[in-house]
Amino acid sequence: MAERGRFITLEGGEGVGKSTLAANLASRLGSLGVSTIRTREPGGSPGAETLRNLILNPPDAIGGWRPTAEALLFYAARSDHLDRTIRPALVRGDWVICDRFSDSTRAYQVAAGGVAAEHFDALERVVVGADAPDLTLVLDLPMDIARTRMKIRAIAEDAIESRGAAYHEAVHRAFLDIARANPQRCVVLDASSAPDALADLAMTEIQRRFAEVR
Ligand code: T5A
Predict the structure, then answer these.
(1) Which CATH number fits the domain that encloses residue 43?
(2) Which atom of ligand 1 is closest in space to residue 99's alpha carbon?
(3) Which of 31, 74, 140, 192 is a good FRET partner for 12, with 20 to 30 A between their CA atoms?
(4) Is residue 120 within a helix (H) or strand (E), and if so which, with residue range?
(5) Residue 59 lies in a domain
């Protein structure tokens, strides 16, 4: 039986460079001979991608999701993503690089949105169980720089991106709090570095932790 793969998540606010780093890491790990899949949340399986659209673009008639409904939708998508994409990959021995995971729910729906922490903990137990990430890279970037990057990219804002500055500041603080509370699993990286320099920082951390890629 193949040795279980490693599960690495990338977290942080919008526009901090998670997708760019995920692509760089998948390519660098691939060139070290590590079979790697790159995935994202919400999404990452056909069912979860269907839910992604419902979450990020709620029908006009409902006037947006309330925080608990939104958290439940994220966990419905996460459950499908874990069952159909992440767990099978880890069992095959592949490494999984996932753009956002449970820490995003903890930052957006719990810290900024007001969902009770014990409800989050219960969902986490039922849906994620023992399959928490081995390593989480939290990308830290001042919000004004992230906003400028998003403007350059010029993609229309979704229902969550369009929430006000206070909401996104709470999200930013929450990611740093999560990293402080989970130092074994989380590392904060300065995301103001250029893409290759950021990938160097991330690879240094990955190689420090995982003997297979040293
Ligand atoms: N959400 C998600 C929740 O509320 N709860 C949850 O549980 C989950 C899972 C997802 C939304 O859902 C919310 C959070 C989000 O609001 P999304 O469309 O997937 O929405 O949005 P993001 O995850 O935020 O992804 P983005 O694409 O917006 O941002 P990234 O991936 O952080 O940034 P990236 O790599 O696309 O880069 C943005 C721009 O910056 C440039 C890129 O070229 C690009 O133009 N860039 C850099 N520039 C300079 N230096 C670097 N190092 C750079 N890296 C990238």
Answers:
(1) 3.40.50.300
(2) 23
(3) 31
(4) helix 117-123
(5) yes
**Alpha-carbon separation of residue 53 from 14, 84, 167, 206 (angstroms):** 17, 18, 21, 32
Question: 92 alpha carbon to ligand 1 midpoint, in Å?
Answer: 28
How many whole angstroms separate alpha carbon 75 and alpha carbon 114?
Answer: 16
For residue 157, the enclosing domain spans: 7-213
Residue 1 located in a structural domain:
no
How far, in Å, is the centroid of ligand 1 from the Cα of 18? 6
Rounded to the nearest whole angstrom, what is the distance from the C-alpha of residue 1 to the centroid of ligand 1? 36
Flag whether 2 is in a domain: no
Candidates 10, 20, 145: which one to mutate for ligand 1, based on the most atoms within 8 Å of Cβ? 20
pLDDT tens-digit map of 123-152: 999 999 999 999 999 999 999 999 999 888
Ligand 1 pocket check: which of 9, 10, 14, 39 to mutate, most ligand atoms within 8 Å of Cβ?
A: 14
- Categorize the per-residue pLDDT at 33 as very low, low, confident or very high, splitting at 50, 70 and 90: very high
Task: Provide the whole-model pTM.
Answer: 0.98
Residue 56 placed within a domain: yes
For strands 135-140 and 95-99, give the pairing.
Answer: unpaired
